[in-house]
Predict the 3D structure of the following.
Amino acid sequence: MDCNIKIDRDAIARYGINVSDVNEVIETAIGGKQASIVYEGERRFPLVLRYPSPYRNNIDAIENIILHSPNGAQVLMRDLAEISLVEGPAQISRESGRRRLVVGVNVDGRDLGGFVQEAQSLIANNVELPQGYTLQWGGQFENMQRAMARLMIIIPLTILAIFFLLFMLFKSLRLASLIILVLPFASIGGVFGLFLTGEYLSVPAAVGFINLWGIAVLNGVVLISFIKQLREDGYSMEDALLHGCGHRFRPVMMTASVPMLFSGGPGSEVTRPLAAVVIAGLVTSTALTLLVLPVLYRWFEEKEVEA
């Protein structure tokens, strides 16, 4: 509870007292004001005067503060101001010289970005801010926006880096383009996993996609490298594809079997979206890598022979 003192300007005018005089008395009694300096050797200490705690937190004591008018009359504070206890902020925060009030909201059961977007729309249509007031959205939403902006740069760079490394490995744009096709295969499962689990595209989910792409590309490299080696050893196209998929089924499955559990304890809001993306994405990427990638490899090689 805060003590609110509203000065009656008509009353102080009748007694010939200035507003500054009343404010000075209030400041001295409640807030404290330096009256002198105490010297102790070479050190100096300010001497501050104010009411003891039981009195400055007591309305009756504040109402009975005596002020002296210019004509010598003694006037009680209750005759010059209206004093009351009101609910107030526990702490007044300031930013850039302006008062700041923080309203905290915990979002549960829906995505943070969608909630903030809906709240911004409702406030813009139904709330008219007074002049001088501004509204800023911060907290986890601000962190999410900052992280998403970085991911918009990191993800394209990651894909370009993967493609460059594949080209350096196979010395072929065709094979590098072929293996990079596993990224959509994996992404299909990741999106489907988010849909099934009711999760949303968040920063952990985006990190899960990057992790998933790395595993999917590794599986594609393992399979295509072995098929390419069999072709160089003289195997026919059909034999190389069947033999390659059969012998590389176990390594691909072992690589894809990444243990990741769903949890509901502290930190689960991070692990659940990431796990949903990786587990579902590995299911589709593994299946499509073993079924679609060999077919595309044959088509790519036939195009290369014709060229």
Summary: Residues 2-95 form a domain with the Multidrug efflux transporter AcrB TolC docking domain; DN and DC subdomains fold (CATH 3.30.2090.10). Residues 268-306 form the longest helix (39 residues). Confidence is low (pLDDT under 50) at residues 258-263. Strands lie at 2-7, 33-40, 43-49, 66-68, 74-76, 81-86, 93-95, 98-100.
